[in-house]
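U., I forgot to send this yesterday:
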Amino acid sequence: MPQFSFEGLTPNVHPGAWVAPTAVLVGDVVVEDGASVWYGAVLRADFSPVILRAGANVQDGAVLHGPPGLHTEVGPGATVAHNCVIHGAVLEEECLVANGAVVLDGATVGARSLVAAGSVVAAGTTVPPGFLVAGAPARLKRPVPGSPAELWVAANPSAYRELAQRHREGTEWLRD
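Result:
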């Protein structure tokens, strides 16, 4: 996997984490135990730290970055799905940011919340724990518990930990 030190700041990847060979980590990136970073994801920590907590996953094509003074953090068991942008925001435990969503500077997505696909969480927004938000800008829709979203939020952390292990053991680089 491409890892780059930037101005003396070097990515720190726990041996129990899995990072796809085509993911890119730059600078002050921390990837904790059991976390996974998928194909084509970019975690660039040149202005501020990017932290991926234990068991979290950042899926294919996602970009994590932040401005000076605002770290980017993906909480334990949280999911950043395909083609998302997380910029200077905090995602709390086991929340799910669905495909193509954007979470901007200073926003916080509460534990076990779901940001619907294609939504934009505006800078400085706080999504309370356990809520579904959708739209651009994202607005509160309903509580996650008791809704169809509950299955996605509950099942995704363990599904991606298991899938990362399968990729660690079962992926083989094929050369022309």
